[in-house]
Amino acid sequence: MGAVRAEHRLAGCNPEWREHFSDSIASESWSEALLPVVTTLLEGGRLDLQHGLLMYNHPDLPELGRLAHLAKEARYGRRAFFNHNVHINPTNVCALACRFCAFRRSKRQDDAYAFSTEAYVEDLGRYADHVTEVHSVGGLHPDWDVTTYESMFAAAKAAFPHVSIKALTAVEVKHLAKQSDLSVEETLERLFDAGLDQLPGGGAEILDDGVRAVICNGKESSQEYLDIHATVHQLGHVSNCTMLFGTVETLEQRVIHMLRLREVADRTGGFQCFVPYPFLPDDTRLPEAQLATGAEVLRTIAVSRLMLDSIPHIKAYRMNVGDGLGELALRFGADDIDGTVHKESIMHLAGSTAPLDADKRRMSRLIEDAGAEPWERNSDYTTFTRFVPPPVPKRRGLTMATE
Ligand code: SF4
């Protein structure tokens, strides 16, 4: 294991979850088609590429979901997590032009923008009384270097020390290192010293360089993505990881993607959450994308819960999949539904219709309707509070007429 602290490796999880999971698998019956997976898990083994493909092709989706839900319950019982966060994207100006991206702009476009430090802090200030996390990712601005983000993070921390900063995808870190003539490690050290707390997982797309050449040519390679995250972990910080599916990848490439992430998680213990989300096509340039159905979203959540046993949390990212599928995913292996968010651009420009006005009461209703208990968490999953919604004030109603 690397330098990441032990509480991050478990992150709210029952340390004896494997025994609980085996016991609950043994107490239920399973179809013959799923037995290779069930037997391996029952014996405490790990799933491989063939198991992953079997699960992706298994005809009984509810059965697969039941197995993944048992794995989630073995770790967290009925608890499901959310946080109180906001997304602020410092710039949409980007030197690249990924074909799935509806967010990026060139410097010359009318709606291109780039925040100053003051504008970033002012925007965060609109939400800071209510949130515990700011999620900030953006384009690869050709004029920005590490000092731009050092200034933003230091000012944000000074103004709002209670807000955890989750920011910069791996490709943004690579870009800042190049712009600043620093190594990735030196760049990360400076950003963490300035106030950065953890990295989000964006930009993983599919960890296959052939797929990346088609959908995001010029981005960091698969290995660079993994190496940058491993460096974060070696520096004693956590990060998250993602998978963008439903573009041009095969099922095998999805499973290999998960296995590559698992290998890093095994080595460093530093991935805290995996967030799989389907490609949304509005205003993008990828007409050949296969697109993912709702069933495929739920199946991918279930497969990832079962494959990724060294990554504690699986998130149903409601900003992308929507509230309806997000809450259903809590029965298919997800334990987290993301946060209240308030403001989000990247997914909404690509077609998301997930509501941005969610408050804690609404989040808890989504979770309770899925049969789970709502627990509010902090940004790095080290503190958890059972959320009990305040009682709805009784409305004085009119006396109903009777026949
Ligand atoms: S996905 Fe990121 S790197 Fe790619 S074009 Fe969009 S903003 Fe730029």
Outline the structure in words.
Helix 13 packs across helix 14. The chain starts with 5 loop residues before the first helix and ends in a 17-residue tail after the last strand. The longest helix is centred in the middle third of the chain and has 18 residues, at 251-268. With 403 residues, it is of the alpha/beta class. Helix content is 42%, strand content 11%. It has helices spanning 6-10, 17-26, 35-42, 49-57, 61-76, 117-125, 146-159, 170-180, 184-194, 209-215, 222-234, 251-268, 294-307, 318-329, 346-349, 360-369, and strands at residues 79-83, 85-87, 133-136, 164-167, 239-245, 271-278, 313-314, 336-339, 373-377, 384-386. The protein has one domain: Alpha-Beta Barrel (TIM Barrel). It binds iron/sulfur cluster. The site of iron/sulfur cluster has 11 residues, from loops.
Short description:
This protein is α/β, with parallel strands linked by helices. It has one domain (6-11, 76-386): Aldolase class I (TIM Barrel, Alpha-Beta Barrel), CATH 3.20.20. It is built from 16 helices and 10 strands.
